[in-house]
Amino acid sequence: MDAFVSPVHALRTPHHPVFCTVVPPHLLRKAAQSADSARADAALRTLEHDSGLRERRQVNALRGIAPSLADTPAEGPARTIYDAQHRTRLPGKKVRAEGSEPVKDATANRAYAGLGATYELFLKAFGRHSIDDSGLPLDATVHYGQDYNNAFWDGRQMVFGDGDGDLFLDFTVSVDVIGHELAHGVTQYTANLDYHGQSGALNESMSDVFGSLIKQYSLDQTADQADWLIGAGLLGPNVTGVALRSMKAPGTAYDDDELGKDPQPATMDDYVNTSRDNGGVHINSGIPNHAFYIAATELGGKAWERAGRIWYDTLTGGRLGEKASFKDFARLSTAAAVARYGEGGAEHQALQKAWSAVGLA
Predict the structure, then answer these.
(1) Which residues pair with 151 in a beta bridge?
(2) How far apart are CA 129 and CA 119, in angstroms?
(3) Phi, psi (deg, nearest 5) at residue 203
(4) Are 23 and 31 in contact (CB under 8 A)?
(5) Contact 37/347 with Cβ under 8 angstroms?
(6) I need a surface site. Which of 163, 233, 303, 319 has the fewest CB within 10 A?
(7) Active-site residue numbers?
(8) What is the spatial distance between Cα 325 and Cα 132, in angstroms, rounded to a whole number?
(9) Is the model's pTM score more than 0.90?
């Protein structure tokens, strides 16, 4: 039996009115100050649009998504890809359904493959049937808006912009970005972490952790082979950087004249106190991200097999409160390691080392 499983907690209806995009607002604010008017305009349009979308997400999150009513969930995803045709009405025109042949549009095919990779990781590694564990269909819309510099989970489906081709490229190019946003749905159906302060940073970190695991699983990589980057390949040709975030070395993903320097801290010594971005949820997530990287590389092998299993047990176990702090997660994840693998073993020691290294033990 899995550690900390709580049937009551598992059936809790998602309700937190949060809106999350993979590109954090501080990056777009920097770009909006550019002397290049085209670059600034694209960033401003995205920021303004995201602000309006938060209201839509509030309605969706409060209403929730009806879980699948199937008695026995299918052992495969139910994917549908739509094309917004550069408009913002969702879902758009249906272009590919589950089991159909690839279409001419590479973006639609990448979205289809990314949804499948996410479904497979959660099923094969953790026994989870889709986002809600009841076979929830996975829908995605591509070609959203004009030069839209973001991707998001709106509480019901995935949405991908094409980027402006300057700062950001097509948001389907990184499978970990697809996994990141869908993992927000998993959190929504489980611990339902409040999207503010440390619980919000944990919410973001859960998505980075599982997004990275999805990429590693799809590439059949061990922990030492992985790049531990979130959004590698997403930054445009004019940006000095390699990704949106680095779990291995938070604060080093980019250092660009327009976008500034990656502000993520790796330890509690550099924790950022801010009122922006819901209390720095995209910034301070670097701390639990780094703890996971340390634990996974300390254990070695395939990161989803032990470190990922411990994180999944903690997220879904029923003891992680909606307003959990970093210390709460450190304590519960260490307990989850002991519950599954025993006290004093390699897993327990790896967790102790990881949380100590980031200043949380």
Answers:
(1) 160
(2) 7
(3) -60, -50
(4) no
(5) no
(6) 233
(7) 181, 282
(8) 24
(9) yes
Q: Are 239 and 225 in contact (CB under 8 A)?
A: no
AA letter at 276: R
Tens digits of pLDDT across the chain (361 residues): 333 333 333 344 444 545 678 999 999 999 999 999 999 999 999 999 888 776 555 444 444 444 555 556 777 999 999 999 999 999 999 999 999 999 999 999 999 999 999 999 999 999 999 999 999 999 999 999 999 999 998 888 999 999 999 999 999 999 999 999 999 999 999 999 999 999 999 999 999 999 999 999 999 999 999 999 999 999 999 899 999 999 999 999 999 999 999 999 999 999 999 999 999 999 999 999 999 999 999 999 999 999 999 999 999 999 999 999 999 999 999 999 999 999 999 999 999 999 999 999 8
**Nearest residue to 151 via CA among 161, 139, 163:** 161
The angle subtended at Cα 15 by Cα 132 and Cα 115, nearest 5°, is 35
| 267 residue type, one letter | T
| Beta-ladder partners of 159 | 141, 152
Nearest partner of 12 among 148, 188, 173, 131, judged by Cα: 188
